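Hi,

Apologies if this is the wrong queue. I'm a grad student, and the batch job for Phosphoserine phosphatase from Novacetimonas cocois produced an output file that my downstream script rejects. I'm not sure whether the problem is my script or the file. Here is the sequence I used:
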Amino acid sequence: MTFLGRRGALGLGMRLGMGLGMAATMAPTFSARAGTDGCGRLAPLKWAPRTRRVMENLITAHGSASPAYDPARPPYAVFDWDNTCITGDCEETLLHYTASRFLFAMPVETFAQATARDVPHRTFSAFRTVDGHDVRFADLHADLCADYATLATRARPPAPDDPALLSLRSKLVYAYDAISATCDGEVACRWIIRLLAGHDATGLATLARASNTWHLGQAIRRETWITPATRPGRAGIIARPVRMGLRLSPEIADLQSVLRAAGIEVYVCSASLEEVVAVFATDPDYGYDLPRANVLGVRMQWPDGRLGLGAAPHWPVTYHAGKVRAIRQALARRHGRGPLLVCGDSSGDYDMLTAFPDTRLGLIINRLSSGPIGTLAARAIAQMSSDQPRFVLQGRDGNTGEWRPSEQTIPLGHDVAQLSGPVRAT
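Support response: The file is valid. Your script probably expects a header line. Output copied below for reference.
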């Protein structure tokens, strides 16, 4: 697709969403104050003006218009996907969509294996029931299996207010949150993916696109999913907040298009299932239209053409340092160097934002986070007057999911912008 065609596709993607709700020392430098000559110019949209200017100058300094550009060894950029290229997490929203409609494709026995695999049998003391009791994983797992078995025997799809369905979805979300908070991150990455086991590639893509479309049409909001009082099970009544809605980021789609037009290759490296991300990242209707081979994510085995429970061999879990290993394995060897540009939003992206000496710029979507990504955000803030920043910030409005023309972010549920976290109480 041509560059102009990509711009047109971006517009179509936005209408869809709205209608549905060299070595580093030898590399050229760029300056936040240098002018651009038109090559690599980004649409203003809702970029923070300085962040956009820094990005344009990076593209001018390293793209095909640069005398130092080598088409045999083109530079490349790597983007995280969830909450970087889009607002929201398309794998988590896929879980919400699937659980709310009981669109699983596993027999009961496989579900029991999928939800127990790799999870230590522990007590989740930091995640309690509504009446303050700790939850043992053994009890939680028993409830999940009982609810799933009840629903799997039904001849018809369950009603939205079916107590077994409401119990299942609340405890699935609770389990994922508790596992994410208390277990190794790789365990949580695999756990949520295994809930999709049994789908073939076509069915999974259809399901993911339906979820994307539905969530693009929803208001950005938080809901509370709670276990019905009539179905406490062994674990008890659980309530968990769930974030609803997705949004396209036309600024990212435009950036990726401009990078590619300037001879800078674009890749995605996500901690979500590769096939799920590819539905979003490769579809021109969403405005991104990346080559399928340029999407890297978590890989699983597909026995008999259906998503299985086992990890694909010889491939890391693309989370934290696993993203660095994947980039080195799949991209750095071929390109002969690390990425020129890395874009991310969370501490799961910290490693790939900092690991490569060849990386000239890191774009951080400002989510006011603490931890390692908060450290990088603080560096970006300290470099806001620098001609050659290593990191830059881009703000967003958490209430709409759209970018704002500032480095500052408005948290969901608030109306005051902040440059750094933590989120201030209202």
